[in-house]
Amino acid sequence: MASAKWAFEDLEEGVSIALGTRTVTAAEIIEFAEQFDFQPMHLDEEAGKASILGGLSASGWHTCCMFMRMLCDGFLLDSTSQGSPGIEFTRWKKPVLAGDTLTGHSTVLGKRASKSKPGLGFVTVRSELVNQRGEVVLELQNTGMFLARSAA
Q1: Which end of the chain is more exposed for a tag (fewer CB within 10 A), N or C?
Q2: Which three-class secondary structure state does DSSP give residue 104?
């Protein structure tokens, strides 16, 4: 962890972190929905087309899970992250349809050192996923806990 690329002191206001891209398949949409969000528009192309979503669409919760994987791969696994006390908000702005390619980024909004735990800090980040048309499909804001490099 001491050799992590991202520690508390690296996460200054305005820093933007690319989270990479991911193409969403119909099979993964259906597999997630069969287990966790058994609504017709997430299980069947025709039902999705008949809905206001316009096609087989990923559950919002599936979209959050894809975001989390992108966040881990693009940033958290090479950081001193100690988890998060919660999410301020999550907004599903547009449907994520089978075949969409999502690109993510996170931007640091602010940070503060912990008053009770030396070497730990709280970093507030706003993140987005956009589709191949440049439309924001997910936006969220959360605070993460990161160790200072010296504490790691």
Answers
A1: N
A2: strand
pLDDT tens-digit readout, 35-54 = 999 999 999 999 999 999 99
* Buried b or exposed e, range 41-67, using 16+ CB within 10 angstroms: bbbebebbeebebebbbbbbebbbebb
pTM of the model as a whole: 0.94
CATH of the domain at 119: 3.10.129.10
- The residue segments making up the domain with residue 68 are 8-147
CA atoms of 1 and 10, how far apart (whole Å) = 14
* 152 within domain boundaries: no
Cα separation, 71 vs 11, in Å, equals: 15
Helix, strand, coil content of the chain in percent (nearest 5)? 25, 35, 35
Start-to-end CA span in the chain (Å)? 6
Contact present, 56 and 26 (Cβ < 8 Å): yes
SS3 113: strand
Q: Model confidence over 67-123: pLDDT tens digits?
A: 999 999 999 999 999 999 999 999 999 999 999 999 999 999 999 999 999 999 999
